[in-house]
Amino acid sequence: MKKQKLPEIEKMDCSVEGIIEITSDHKRIISENGSALVIIIIAGWCGNCQIMAPILQNLAFQYRGKIKFVMVDADTNEEIGKAYDLDVLPLFLFFNKNSLIDQAKGTVPSSLLDKKMKALVEVSSNNKSFN
């Protein structure tokens, strides 16, 4: 059976509703993003990632239309791990336009992620600097 070549960026059904999963080319997603973006770096074997999945689903629903959520598997996209000195999973990267403005690592309380996302929405909508 001949294998088909996958497209450079592939949208897939994820375990977390409201979050797009990409398999490559995260740099293009970042550079072409015009507003608030959260990239979540995960791995299928990661227990912390599985713990955070329901929290992420709730936040993706809460911030739908305000923040774009993208999930990247660290095992299939090693480049992103190297680019952001990945040492703990999951890794949350918060971007405004194409600039990294904040991050969080590991199992993070939902209240802290919510606070960071509220700040990201405000920065994105007002073009203010992040504090």
Alpha-beta classification: alpha/beta
Beta fraction of the residues? 15-25%
CATH class: Alpha Beta
Shape: globular
Give the topology string: H per helix, E per strand: EHEHEHEEH
Mean pLDDT: 82
Number of strands: 5
The total domain count is 1
The largest pleated sheet is described as:
5 strands, mixed
Q: Which percent bin holds the helix content?
A: 25-40%
How do the strands line up in the largest sheet? 1-3-2-4-5
Are there runs of 5+ residues with pLDDT below 50, and where? 1-14
Query: What separation lies between the terminal Cα atoms?
Result: 54 Å
Radius of gyration over alpha carbons?
Answer: 14 Å
CATH architecture: 3-Layer(aba) Sandwich
Total helical segments = 4
Provide the CATH superfamily: Glutaredoxin
Topology-level CATH name: Glutaredoxin
Label this structure with key terms.
5-stranded mixed sheet, alpha/beta, 131 residues, Glutaredoxin, single chain
